[in-house]
Design brief:
Length: about 400
């Protein structure tokens, strides 16, 4: 009996909080680096610790939400998010900023994890994928506006103001959840006990399911390539290629527009091609976008000078387009076989995705510090190319074999 618009708006905001948290402050990242006297590697840690705590937080919130419901977890998580965003606004050194970002990631994890689990609470897998795509269209709109707002805010108000915007956005979501979103997990489907030893065995059981593994590999690989963009794009566009902060925000918005297009086309592909067929089409797009970026990197290497910043955009557009489709299908797929354990399955998948991103971020920090690689586009473009290739391999192979499950675990 819950109106569709409430679900779509809730999904858009709950899942959209993640790209807002990462994208909004990217135009201000070089500015924050200078203000706090940080190295490029140290500035990247403000993103890496957020992603790591985001993953670990899901492992805690997931079982709690399966036991007590989604609403209490959302309220506590969003409250932590708002408070930590205010702390990040006031931070004057790296330790305080890192601590604020850790707590911010924990609060953020409750939002995204519950958004994914709600879909399994309310819908069967195929219908859930369509609803997830609709919700991700809202996410795409948020992601479209976020970089533009971040670029303008950083340009005219400074990097601290971008953190204040995050606190405001988190407060808006908290009010909406409190006023409009009822509990989606009925008492009959809640876990009877909260025993962490049993939860470890539960996660191990979930991890053995081939459908879970296929879709978790898909979402982790496509996000791994995107994370290279998130971690390095502001330095590449602003510091290496000389793009202004405002123009960089517009460039990011164009990539978000491609993401939005992916969510819309995903909804049209699903009825005719099915879940696995839609992933297959998107897999070819992932490979194409990655190869375009590798080609740009190779061309620049041979010519010995930087190409215009706009030459990077077509490959990024195609990658983002495919990423939207993979996320819409993959986030539904990871919980499809677990109607009574959707929170735990969502949490485990989110943790593995975040752990992958954290490892990639650590490797990127080391890579960008090497002589000959610092202040170049190559770590970003080559990493995205590798992400596109791995994603295509999983989408065209593993997901085609194990992507659909009829098990009611």
């Amino acid at each position: 009996g819950l109106p569709d618009w409430v679900i779509v708006v809730a999904l858009g905001m709950l899942t959209g909080l993640q790209p807002v948290t990462t994208d909004l402050y990217l135009p201000a990242l070089p500015q924050m680096q200078q203000a706090l006297g940080l190295t490029t590697a140290a500035a990247q840690w403000t993103l890496s610790v957020l992603i790591l705590s985001f993953g670990i937080g899901q492992l805690v919130w997931g079982p709690i939400s399966d036991r007590f419901g989604r609403r209490p977890v959302l309220r506590w998580g969003l409250g932590l998010y708002v408070v930590s965003s205010l702390a990040a606004t006031l931070a004057n050194d790296l330790p305080v900023m890192l601590l604020a970002r850790v707590v911010q990631g924990v609060g953020l994890s409750a939002s995204v994890m519950c958004g994914r689990a709600m879909i399994r609470d309310l819908y069967a897998p195929e219908q859930g994928a369509r609803m997830m795509a609709r919700g991700m269209s809202g996410l795409g709109v948020i992601a479209l506006l976020g970089p533009i707002l971040g670029g303008l805010t950083a340009t005219y108000l400074g990097w601290r103001a971008t953190m204040s915007v995050l606190a405001i956005f988190g407060s808006v979501i908290l009010v909406f959840v409190w006023a409009k979103l009822p509990e989606t997990l009925p008492p009959a489907r809640r876990q009877a006990h909260l025993h962490w030893g049993a939860m470890v065995r539960n996660w191990w059981s979930i991890a053995q399911h081939p459908t879970f593994r296929a879709h978790t590999l898909l979402t982790s690989s496509t996000y791994g390539g995107l994370y290279a963009y998130l971690a390095l794009s502001s330095f590449v566009f602003i510091n290496v290629l000389g793009t202004s902060r405002a123009l960089f925000g517009v460039s990011m918005a164009s990539i978000s527009l491609a993401y939005l297009g992916g969510t819309i086309l995903c909804r049209h592909w699903l009825p005719t091609h099915g879940l696995t067929g839609t992933v297959r089409l998107a897999g070819w797009c992932s490979l194409t976008g990655g190869l375009l970026l590798v080609a740009i990197s190779g061309w620049q290497w041979l010519m010995g000078h930087n190409l215009p910043a706009w030459t990077l955009l077509p490959g990024m557009w195609i990658y983002a387009f495919a990423h939207a489709t993979h996320q819409s299908c993959g986030q539904t797929g990871v919980v499809s076989a677990f109607p009574t354990r959707a929170g735990a399955a969502s949490a485990l998948s989110g943790f593995l995705l975040s752990a992958t991103a954290f490892v990639i971020g650590t490797l990127l920090s080391l890579w960008t510090a090497l002589p000959g690689w610092a202040d170049t586009i190559h770590p970003m473009t080559l990493s995205m190319g590798l992400g596109g290739a791995v994603t295509a391999w999983i989408a065209l192979g593993r997901v085609q074999r194990d992507g659909i499950s009829t098990e009611d675990a």
